[in-house]
Design brief:
- With 438 residues, the protein is an alpha/beta fold.
- The chain folds into 2 domains: 6-58 and 316-435, Aspartate Aminotransferase, domain 1, CATH 3.90.1150; 63-314, Type I PLP-dependent aspartate aminotransferase-like (Major domain) (Aspartate Aminotransferase, domain 2).
- Helices cover 35% and strands 16% of the residues.
- It contains 13 helices and 15 strands.
- The chain has a 7-stranded mixed β-sheet with strand order 4-10-9-8-7-5-6, sandwiched between helices. The chain has a 4-stranded mixed β-sheet with strand order 1-2-3-13. A 4-stranded antiparallel β-sheet has the order 11-12-15-14, with helices on one face.
- Helix 2 packs antiparallel against helix 9 (299-314).
- The chain is globular.
- It binds ligand 7F7.
- The ligand Cc1ncc(COP(=O)(O)O)c(/C=N/[C@@H]2CCCCNC2=O)c1O is lined by residues 20, 50-51, 110-112, 115, 138-141, 204, 208-209, 237, 239-240, 265-266.
- This is Aspartate aminotransferase family protein.
Length: 438
Amino acid sequence: MSTPSLRERDARVIAEIGRLRFSPLSLVGGRGNRLIEEGGREVLDLSGSAGPAALGYGHPAMVEAVERAVRDMAGASLLLYPNEPAVSLAERLLAVTPGSGERRVWFGHSGSDANDCTVRVLAAVTGRSRFISFIGSYHGNLSGSMGISGHTAMTHTLPRPGVLLLPYPDPFRPKFSAEDVLALLDYQFETTCPPDQVAAVFIEPLMSDGGLIVPPHGFLKALQDRCRRHGIKIVVDEVKVGLARSGRMHCFEHEGLEPDLVVFGKGLGGGLPLSAVVGPAEIMDHAPAFALQTTAGNPVATAAGGAVLKTIEREGLVERSARIGKLFSDGLRALAEKHEIIGDVRGRGLAVGVDLVADRGTRDPVPATTTAKIIYRGYQLGAAFTYVGLKANVLEFMPPLTLTDDEAAEGVAIVDRAIEDVLAGKVADADVASFMMW
Ligand SMILES: Cc1ncc(COP(=O)(O)O)c(/C=N/[C@@H]2CCCCNC2=O)c1O
């Protein structure tokens, strides 16, 4: 009787509702920017595990911080007892996040719970029940955060009553220009969405799961100006593209936004479950016992967060993300000269998307099976990456911020070969049938 593979065992015990699988990759380890597959093969990680692995895997700063914190554990619950790692991280987060006045930090475990908490506390504090968000946005998978999201993969759950979902202007497919969207918002304010009923607008400064869309310059600022006029709070969701990934410390800095609240997650914990909301004390001190999670802000996860922020500074990861991101994007853009299927290469820093088109003229997206096959072939060739987009046609690259020049070049070469092989028919529909999940 042969020993079942990790994937076979996974199939027997892990719930399908918690899966979003893009390849057969099953992991027994990770070192640096490489994942270790069952059987020992090393796979270059261009996914960052969907973003959290900001420092890759086994980074000495993470190992040292987490080991120290778990060996001498300062309790396991910030809601009961202040602990040094959590308070130190909150102090550092406030120091590196632009803003004015008295501010506070709320800790959670995920981007989902952080946005969920933000929705609830803003509705309570403002007494306003409406929210504005965007078609294609992904703010989380809990009822509150999903309720203000607009991703097509989440249509199984109805949006929160009173949410206004606006189109997110996409320069590559300008179905709605920035001016169209702002005009639509103004019209909504005049008619069915009274601005004095709107608590906040939730903004991804770079729309990730909706297709790695960089909004037209000036759009977000114009949106912010309108909201300011009506006392609508600005919430920037930096969960996926924040903390150095975009080539700035905060992605919202590219557009000169001045958010009222900033939501962090994913990379903040370096792979440990950690999120944070930074906001004004008059909101975040609304009431005791309003947004409780027993282990949120625990000393181990927050020690990891401290190591992430320290390493971003010590290793100059903001500049690195900008530099390596340009190298990587330029390499992918150069592939467009030989692959008609590459319609657009876009993003900021090390948040990179490759928009795959069936026709460069019409910019119609390729079928999702094509995208899935390229990812599958990339896996076979030794790299892990994923896809996003409302038509499942955008290759998503969110590698560790520690990606090296050589690894960027290696990644480009693998994407090049994967496209070639798929277009040559080397991957069958059956190979990807079980990976077409969103
Ligand atoms: C901008 C933004 N905000 C919040 C979230 C939710 O974060 P969690 O998945 O840590 O709860 C996410 C999560 N995004 C999804 C998670 C599901 C798998 C697909 N890839 C993502 O990055 C996000 O991108």
